[in-house]
Amino acid sequence: VASWVFHLRSDVSTVAHGIQFLYGDYGIEFDDPGFADFHIQVHRPWTLRRWLTPQVVFEIGGERPFHPFPAAQAMPMLEWGMNWCVSNFTNHLLVLHSAVLERNGRAVLLPAPPTHGKSTLCAALVARGWRLLSDELALVDLHSGLLHPFPRPISLKNRSIAVIRAFAPEAAITEPVLDTVKGDIAYFRPPAGSVARSEEPALPGCVVFPRYRKGAATKFTPLHKADAFRQLAEQAFNYYVLGRHAFEAVAGLIDRSECFSFEYEALDSGVAAFEALIA
Amino acid sequence: VTDGASLFSLSAGRFAVRTWQDRAVCYDAASGDTVFLDELGTVILDVLGAGPATLDALISRLGERFTVEQELADLAGQALARLSALGFISEAPA
């Protein structure tokens, strides 16, 4: 997956189907890859629950960082586990909680905490032809400042699932997995074009802090770069691990970028505003 | 900071500073903290970047950038105390 090799073992059929549907455009190898960055498993443990209330566990190197999930939630568990692997063990890059998209050679970061409408906006832009670098993790090169792609499925939650199905009926979206800790979740398959360019980094051009708000008019508001720095650093997983390198990386990213906050309700006008921004 | 005879100077080498317009963000290599400075703190860093200064001289130089009112001396004193506590500047007898 982009620059990372995941070696996955699983006895869960929904995982096999999910991998085939969501990662089919990647080169999936069914043999032991030899070297892998992460050796992970999503499997059903041999306990009494296996027959009563089936569960799944996520393992990396034999450790289980999460509590078991209901078996029906195996695919979200795998996706969250893959995010966890990269955000916890990647320290040669600055890792930010942010979507990243690219159009006309300029990458736009959408950093946001949960419930701000980041993934919905990201999916809408991808459905209108924007290149997906990531829905979840911005990976900033500490030396060049370039953004490394990590195009994986876009996680749609609750009402966003129906919103994106209506906005982009042609989009390849899984059936929802119900009642996870984050609500109902469906996954939007990354476009083949984005996957094909998954080793091609992009130059940052804009940092936009999105916020969905019912009744909001679509509006960009310029942000002072010091405020943008503060908000962006707050979304970093490894700012304190990297110390001055992270400071310089965030500062460099802010230097290169126009910075805005963005409020929206309607996706059509939101996407149009982004098209105008990057034109 | 009330002693007009003190000389204030920047602590060299400890901080990385990025300034955008009227505000600065600083990284303290000693603590690993990131500090956000307001307009006055940013200007004080900038002024002291040209060389050490007493409080009176500093207020005089700040007066070239701000409209000097009585309150500015108090604010400058408070800003110097904060910057001093953060380790950005050091204070020595003039």
String of helices and strands of chain A? EHEEEHEEHEEEEHEEHEEHHHEH
What percentage of the residues of chain B does DSSP assign to strands (E)?
A: 25-35%
Shape of chain B: globular
Strand order of the largest sheet of chain B: 5-1-6
**Rg of Cα set of chain A:** 19 Å
Number of helices of chain B: 3
SSE sequence of chain B, one letter per element: EEEEHEHHE
Strand content of chain A: 25-35%
Net shape of chain A? globular
Structural class of chain B: alpha+beta
Number of helical stretches of at least 4 residues of chain A: 9
Give the proportion of residues in helices of chain B.
25-40%
Which stretches of chain A are poorly predicted, pLDDT < 50 over at least 5 residues?
A: none
Average pLDDT rating of chain A: 94
Helix content of chain A: 25-40%
Tally of DSSP β-strands of chain A: 15
Describe the structure.
- The complex is a heterodimer of chains A (279) and B (94).
- By secondary structure, chain A is α+β, with helices and mostly antiparallel strands.
- Chain A has helices spanning 13-22, 74-89, 118-127, 159-167, 192-196, 225-234, 239-242, 244-256, 267-278; strands at 6-10, 38-43, 55-60, 69-70, 93-103, 106-111, 131-134, 137-141, 147-148, 154-157, 177-180, 183-188, 204-212, 219-222, 258-264.
- In chain A, strands 5, 6, 7, 8, 9, 13, 14 and 15 form an eight-stranded mixed sheet that branches.
- In chain A, helix 3 (118-127) packs parallel to helix 4 and helix 6 packs across helix 8 (244-256).
- Chain A is globular and about 55 Å long.
- The model of chain A has no long low-confidence stretch (mean pLDDT 94).
- Chain B has 94 residues and is of the alpha+beta class.
- Helix content of chain B is 37%, strand content 30%.
- Chain B contains three helices and six strands; from the N terminus they run E-E-E-E-H-E-H-H-E.
- Chain B has helices at 39-48, 55-62, 70-86; strands at residues 6-10, 15-20, 23-28, 34-37, 53-54, 89-93.
- In chain B, strand 2 and strand 3 form a beta hairpin.
- The longest helix of chain B is centred in the C-terminal third of the chain and has 17 residues, at 70-86.
- Chain B is globular, with a radius of gyration of 12 Å.
- The mean pLDDT of chain B is 85.
